[in-house]
Design brief:
- The protein contains ten helices and nine strands.
- It has helices at 3-7, 12-23, 27-32, 40-54, 59-63, 87-99, 116-124, 137-150, 209-219, 237-246; strands spanning 65-68, 71-74, 106-110, 129-134, 155-159, 171-176, 222-231, 250-256, 262-268.
- A seven-stranded mixed beta sheet has the order 5-4-3-6-7-9-8, with helices on both faces. A two-stranded antiparallel sheet has the order 1-2.
- β1 (65-68) and β2 (71-74) form a beta hairpin.
- The chain is globular, with a radius of gyration of 20 Å.
Length: 273
């Protein structure tokens, strides 16, 4: 088959990603050479990808790699797929690091998954000491592999729940994209999500369980003047903001994503005079 035929077999945007990946060429090459014959192996892999996508299997897992912020990450079943809206957390953390003259700032990423947030921060703020905790063995192995592939050896991933294994540490920034979807929402979500680990997506207490545990503990793990940054669901801004305020955080506010949805709640630990 030629490139043009394969592009027309399924969603074009997805097929461009598939063929670019398997042929190891740019999208512009595909459009400029649509009559080019593809290798039999590429054709077989592309047709397999289409069959899997028709069943709702995530494209990211099919390809095995996915871009996030400015890095390429290995992705695999059993670990949450990094999403573009989560890049807001990286942006906010990097802005804070740029605006403060902390010496050797320390950053903690709770629930690192593939390492997307941790590794993006580490790449763009090499002076920072970046740590991460996650309860998933699959995530622990994958994040370490991604760190090695990217040559980011100053990121320290730990296996543990919330602040386990970093219990004696204090940080300038704590960042987290915890599971925040309620079980009640499950029947209405896109089909692809059923292939991702439920523990990384769904949480009890209307999706707020991890915030309820994490926010009060975070205050004790922040340096004075440190920041807590949390990704949230589109309807959770007010409730999570209240949690931060009740825990004693100052300057609590919600930031919206490009679609106008509440996406990040942030607050600061006060400085003792």
């Amino acid at each position: 088959m030629v490139i043009r035929e394969l592009l027309n077999l399924w969603d074009r945007n997805e097929m461009v990603k598939v063929l670019s990946h398997y042929m190891m060429v740019s999208p512009s090459h595909l459009y400029a050479h649509q009559d080019e014959e593809v290798l039999r192996k590429v054709e077989e892999l592309s047709l397999r990808a289409i069959r899997l996508r028709k069943k709702g299997y995530p494209l990211q897992y099919i390809l095995g790699t996915w871009g996030f912020y400015t890095i390429d990450l290995k992705v695999a079943e059993g670990v949450l797929i990094p999403r573009p809206e989560t890049e807001m957390l990286v942006d906010e953390a990097l802005h804070i690091l740029q605006d403060h003259d902390w010496e050797k700032p320390k950053v903690l990423d709770i629930g690192y998954g593939t390492g997307a947030i941790s590794l993006s921060i580490a790449k763009h703020a090499p002076e920072a000491q970046v740590y991460g905790t996650d309860i998933s063995v699959n995530a622990f192995m994958l994040a370490q592999e991604n760190a090695k592939n990217l040559g980011l050896h100053h990121v320290h991933f730990y296996l543990g729940n919330l602040f386990e294994n970093v219990d004696q540490e204090k940080f300038h920034i704590i960042v987290s994209n915890p599971p925040y979807i309620s079980q009640e929402e499950k029947p209405y979500l896109q089909e692809e999500l059923r292939y991702e680990p439920e523990i990384a997506l769904f949480a009890p207490e209307n999706g707020l369980a991890l915030y309820n545990k994490m926010v009060p503990l975070a205050m004790g793990h922040l340096e004075e003047g440190g920041f807590l940054l949390l990704e949230i669901g589109a309807k959770q801004g007010e409730l999570v903001s209240m949690l931060l305020q009740e825990a004693g955080f100052e300057n609590v506010h919600v930031k919206q994503d490009l679609n106008g949805h509440d996406r990040v709640v942030m607050g600061r630990k006060g400085v003792v005079a």
